[in-house]
């Protein structure tokens, strides 16, 4: 297990990480998300021992991340970590040899991973002759070439077409199924939601939300989406008199919530206090007082909505000059009132 405990890091007067704490289990794909400047890359470099920390500790299987441990880690940086004029095959074999593989094993691994990632026909080409997407595939091959026991990938899906995204997703799932902990950062939150076993949202230097996607979507008090055959004023009056908070449905008019003549769509917040009775029956009864209920379902937020609800995009870039981020409360904001454990 990879364990990050109370890691803090500042660049000058700017605090980038503040007591950052989380763990990733064997076989788990962990999505590490946050706005630009949140500290994701800084945290990853500290995990690898490439950047010093001010305080805290990082351990893997109970031991420190030393040179021997790094030999067993696959790392893919966000920026290109390849030699642009060097052929793909020689470059990957060189990286494999650096990890202690024999020449024959290095060549076999190069053949396997270039074929697996769809760049087998470009082995003899210099990296700079490849498209950005194919360069990204080669960079992933470099992280996998030595059969690592831990994967740390910084924006691995950046610049990839849908076919390459599927190939990379399948590869990461395969490694996780083999028991390898996989950590990757991404701004493609729909992809994170589909692929990851758990997600950590980084803001203000720490994890402000942590759990499986289902846990995050079900936590707090998701609102109910209502579609009622009634005038908007009539529906609002019936619901507010019953003690519910009513808001316009932001998805009204989309494919998820199409508009029809005479139908009013709203989102309704229900009481979330511990020990209160299930408000579903009361809500449905109030809606039926206004008209015929056409749709009635709890609207669980997607990861994109959760992220937007708690993270305010900072004004500066991340590396070496991290910006502060702020938590804010919105429709789902009550979920993140305290640090995730």
TrEMBL record:
Coiled-coil intervals, chain numbering? none
Q: Which GO terms describe its molecular function?
A: ATP binding; ATP hydrolysis activity
Residue stretches making up the ABC transporter domain: 2-229
**Which InterPro entries would you find in this protein's record?**
AAA+_ATPase, ABC_transporter-like_ATP-bd, ABC_transporter-like_CS, ABC_Transporter_VariousFunc, P-loop_NTPase
Question: Which keywords does this Swiss-Prot/TrEMBL entry list?
Answer: ATP-binding, Nucleotide-binding, Transport
SUPFAM superfamilies found in the cross-reference section: P-loop containing nucleoside triphosphate hydrolases (SSF52540)
In the UniProt record, does the keyword NAD occur? no
What name does the UniProt record give this protein? ABC transporter domain-containing protein
Q: Which organism is it from?
A: Actinotignum schaalii FB123-CNA-2
């Amino acid at each position: 297990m990879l364990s990050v405990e109370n890691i803090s890091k500042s660049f000058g007067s700017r605090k980038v990480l503040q007591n950052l704490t989380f763990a990733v289990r064997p076989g788990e794909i962990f999505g590490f998300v946050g706005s630009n400047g949140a500290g994701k890359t800084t945290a990853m470099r500290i995990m690898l021992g490439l950047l010093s920390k001010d305080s805290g500790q990082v351990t893997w299987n109970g031991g420190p991340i030393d040179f021997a441990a790094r030999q067993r880690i696959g790392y893919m940086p966000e920026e290109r970590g390849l030699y642009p004029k060097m052929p793909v095959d020689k470059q990957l074999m060189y990286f494999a040899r650096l990890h202690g593989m024999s020449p024959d094993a290095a060549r076999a691994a190069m053949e396997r991973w270039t074929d697996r990632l769809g760049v087998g026909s470009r082995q003899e080409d210099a990296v700079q002759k490849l498209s950005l997407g194919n360069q990204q595939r080669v960079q992933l091959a470099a992280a996998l070439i030595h059969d690592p026991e831990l994967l740390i990938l910084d924006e691995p899906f950046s610049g990839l077409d849908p076919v390459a995204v599927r190939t990379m997703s399948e590869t990461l799932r395969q490694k996780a199924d083999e028991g390898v902990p996989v950590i990757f950062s991404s701004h493609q939150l729909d992809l994170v939601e589909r692929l990851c076993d758990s997600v950590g949202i980084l803001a203000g230097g720490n994890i402000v939300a942590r759990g499986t996607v289902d846990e995050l979507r079900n936590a707090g008090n998701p609102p109910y989406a209502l579609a009622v055959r009634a005038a908007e004023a009539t529906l609002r009056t019936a619901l507010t008199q019953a003690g519910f908070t009513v808001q316009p449905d932001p998805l009204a008019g989309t494919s998820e919530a199409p508009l029809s003549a005479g139908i009013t769509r709203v989102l309704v917040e229900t009481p979330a206090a511990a020990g209160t009775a299930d408000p579903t029956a009361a809500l449905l009864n109030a809606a039926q007082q206004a008209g015929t209920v056409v749709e009635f379902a709890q609207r669980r937020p997607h990861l994109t909505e959760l992220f937007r609800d708690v993270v305010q995009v900072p004004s500066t870039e991340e590396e070496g000059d991290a910006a502060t981020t702020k938590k804010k409360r919105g429709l789902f904001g009550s979920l993140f009132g305290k640090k995730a454990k």
